[in-house]
Amino acid sequence: MTNKNREPRPIVLIRGLVREQRHWGFFKTVLQQTLPERKILSFDIPGNGSLANLRSPSSIAELRQSLRIQLKLSPLEINKVDLVAISLGGMLAVDWADRYPQEIHSITLINSSNAAFSPFYQRLRWQSYLKVWGILFAKTDRQRQQRIMNVTSQFPALHGDVVENWLAWSKEHVVTKTNAFSQLKAAMLFKLAIKPVVPVLVLSSQQDQLVSAECSVQLAKHWACTHKQHTSAGHDLPLDAPDWTAKQIQAWLESLTSD
Predict the structure, then answer these.
(1) What mean pLDDT comes out for the span 36-49?
(2) With CB atoms 3.0 to 4.6 Å apart as the test, which of 110, 191, 223, 231 could cross-link to 195 if both were Cys?
């Protein structure tokens, strides 16, 4: 029997490596304006943001389980959710949909990857190895945040205010190198060849400096799912192209049959 008082199906946003929920930034507002009837939820994984004092597990399954627990603690009456996830977050979304398909209506994967279909030097582009090393061992936090911007956005000069926000958040919630390496290990080991039974949308950035766009191409090819690619945005697609990203998600969700 359908509960007429049940809230419209929420959307859960999942960020990537060493990023907290606040890093969705202006995109979260854009998505809410695009889909005003939906609740837009987001949580942190252990080691990041409000959970920075916790140890980051080094497996995708353990990181995903933390999100499930946080969602279950939500006061909302929830049947299923639509997941929108970027990079490492996409791996958590895939694992969630694979292990608990009854909880997930759909997943949208943004610039994510899967070791079942892509080699390590594409999942973290070999051209970016020195840049990533420079981020991990930056001398100052400002230098670190700027370097993250430079490698994740194609338009860093336009996002000076965003870097200031990142700097403030990083001082408030410090991500340790140990937790960063644990999350990186979890990402590099993640492998799932069989497509989850829920609908999957793949969004990617042709100019991604961090993860090869070929990873999304191969993911969509092997899983025979819808793939939309932005031609000029960087790895942080919601930052570089928030309106385009929200429109793609809106159109795709509206095309799905509700349950």
Answers:
(1) 97
(2) 223
